[in-house]
Amino acid sequence: MADTFDLIVIGAGPGGYVCAIRAAQLGLKTAIVEKRATYGGTCLNVGCIPSKALLHASELYEEAGHGFARMGIKVSPELDLDRMLAFKDEAIKGNVDGVAFLLKKNKITPFHGAGRISAAGRVEVTTEDGSRQTLETRSIVIATGSDVARLPGIEFDETRIISSTGGLSLAEVPKRLLVVGAGVIGLELGSVWRRLGASVTVVEYLDRILPGMDGEIAKSLEKIFIKQGLSFRLGTKVSAIGRAGSGLSVTLEPAQGGTQDKIETDVVLIAIGRVPYTDGLGLDELGVVRDNRKRIAVNGQFETNVTGIYAIGDVIAGPMLAHKAEDEGIAVAEILAGQAGHVNHDVIPNVIYTTPEVASVGKSEEELKAAGVGYTVGKFPFLANGRAKANRTTDGFVKVLADATTDRILGVHIIGANASELIAEAAVIMEFSGSAEDLARTCHAHPTLSEAVKEAAMAVAKRAIHM
Ligand code: FAD
Ligand code: NAI
C-alpha cells in the first residue's frame, strides 16, 4: 500500500522547502523528496549562501589590506584559504541544518532520492542504492531548480574548467582566472578571486555587462570594476579551450565573427546562465508542456496543463532567484489550501553582492522607454550623503524612476554600499503603489545611507536638499 499525502514537493531548495513548510502550517499532510544529501537546494549548498560567505570574507581581507590603515588600524593580513573555505562550509552547514530542523518541526515527511512522476498523483522515489518506493498524493509541486548552462563541446573538470560550484572551492588562488559571462555569477565570483589575488579577465558575448540591468547602473559598475582591477573583453565569445603547458589556452573571437586571438590562463570559470532542471521527472510521458527554454509552463495558479501538477522557482519563467522561488512556494501552498496565494512578479528585488553592491526593483529606464511610459528621474549620489562620507563608501548613487503623470514609483536602482538592504524599503513602497512624494516625506534616520534613497525621491521633484 503506497504512502498517501495531500502534497508531495519534489526538490528541497528555497522554493520547495518553503512551500512544504507553508503547506504543513496550513494543515496539509506534506512530504518532500530531495536527491541531494542535504536540504536547501542550489541556494544553500552551492549558490547564494557559500558565495555570500566568500564575498564577505574576501571583502574584509581586501579591506584589511587596503582600507584599514587610513582609519588608523595597522594590520598585515595573510590569506589562509583553507580556513576561508572552511568558514564558507560552516555557513552552508548552519543553513542546511536549519532547514532540516524546520522540516522536522513542521512534521514534513522527508524522502531521500530522485523523484519521478509516474502518473498524476503518483511519485516514484529512487534512492542511490536503486531501491524504489511509490507515494500517492492529491497534488504535486515540482521545485527541482536549475543547473549550469554549458558551452558546447567544453566539459567541466571543476578544477581548471569550472562552473560556479568549482568556483566556490578552488584549492588555491589561481594566478590568472578567465571568466566567461559578465552576469551575476561571473562578477560576484570574479570579484572574490580578484580580491584574493587572481588576475581576472571577464569575457562577455554582449557589448555590455549585466544584460537586463538598468544601463546607466551597469556602465557605472563596469567603470568601478575596471578601477578595482578586473578587465573586460566585451562583444567577445570563446570558441575553444585547450591545454597550454600547465595552463589553458582560450581562443576568443568577436561575437559577430572576425579575427581570433588566444589568451593564456590558469582557470576558466564558465558562468553563462542556468537552465531549468527537469530531466528524469517523466514530464514528456505525462504531457506536461515546457516552453522553448525548457521552462515548465504554468498558469496564474502555478498549475501545469496536467491537473494536480504544479511548478515553482527556477523551473518556471521569471528571474532565477531564491526569494522569487520562496514567494512562489508560499503562494502555491496557500492556493492548495484553498487560500488566495499570489506573487507580484513586478516587485521582485534583484541584488548583486559585489563592492559596491547593486540592487534594483521594478523597471529600468530602458524598459520604460520601450513601453512608451513617461517617467521622471530622481538621482542622488552617495558622495553627498553624510554617513557614506564618514564611512568613505561614496561610490555610487540611488535612482528613483516615477511615473511622469501620477508620481507612482516604477523602479528604484541603487549602486553603493549596503544596496542589498536599502532596496527593501523601495520594494515595500512599490508594493503599496506609493509615490516618490510618499518616499520623500517619510522620515529617515540620520546619519544613514537610507537618506540617499529619500533624497533621490526628493530629487524626482527637483528638491533634494544636499545637492
Ligand atoms: P534549487 O535551489 O535548485 O533546488 C532544487 C532542488 O531539487 C535541489 O536540491 C535538487 O537536488 C533537487 N532535485 C532536482 N531534481 C530532483 C528530483 N528529480 N528528485 C528530487 N530532488 C530533485 N539567488 C538569489 O536570490 N540570491 C543569491 O545571492 C544567489 N546567489 C547564487 C549564487 C550561485 C553561485 C548560484 C549558482 C545561484 C545563486 N542564486 C541566487 C540563485 C538561486 O540559487 C536559485 O534561484 C534558487 O536556488 C532556486 O530555488 P529552487 O527551489 O527553484 O531550486
Ligand atoms: P547570467 O544570466 O546572470 O549571466 C550570464 C552572462 O553570460 C550574460 O551576460 C550573457 O550575455 C553571457 N553569455 C552567455 N553566453 C555566453 C557566451 N557563449 N560567451 C560569453 N558570454 C556569454 O547568468 P549567471 O551569471 O550564470 O547566473 C545564473 C543565474 O543565477 C542568474 O541569472 C541569477 O538568476 C542567479 N544568481 C543570482 C545571484 C544573486 O541574486 N546575487 C548570484 C548568482 C546567481
Itemize the secondary structure elements and their pairings.
Elements: E1 3-10, H1 14-25, E2 30-34, H2 41-46, H3 48-66, H4 81-105, E3 109-112, E4 114-119, E5 122-126, E6 132-142, E7 146-148, E8 161-162, H5 164-167, E9 176-180, H6 184-195, E10 199-203, H7 215-228, E11 231-233, E12 236-244, E13 247-254, E14 261-265, E15 267-270, E16 274-276, H8 283-286, E17 309-311, H9 322-336, E18 350-352, E19 357-362, H10 365-370, E20 375-381, H11 386-391, E21 397-403, E22 409-416, H12 419-431, H13 436-440, H14 450-460
Parallel strand pairs: 1-2, 1-6, 2-3, 6-17, 8-15, 9-10, 9-15, 10-11
Antiparallel strand pairs: 4-5, 5-6, 7-16, 12-13, 13-14, 18-19, 19-22, 20-21, 21-22
Helix pairs in contact: 1-9, 3-4, 3-6
The structure holds flavin-adenine dinucleotide and 1,4-dihydronicotinamide adenine dinucleotide (NAI).
Distinct small-molecule ligands in the complex: flavin-adenine dinucleotide, 1,4-dihydronicotinamide adenine dinucleotide
- CATH C-level label of the largest domain: Alpha Beta
Largest sheet: number of strands, sense, barrel closure: 7 strands, mixed
Helical amount: 25-40%
Number of helices: 14
- The tally of domains stands at 3
The CATH architecture of the largest domain would be: 3-Layer(bba) Sandwich
- Let me know the average pLDDT: 97
Strand tally is: 22
Strand content: 25-35%
- By CATH, the topology of the largest domain is FAD/NAD(P)-binding domain
Whole-Å distance between the termini?
Answer: 72 Å
Low-pLDDT parts are none
Shape: globular
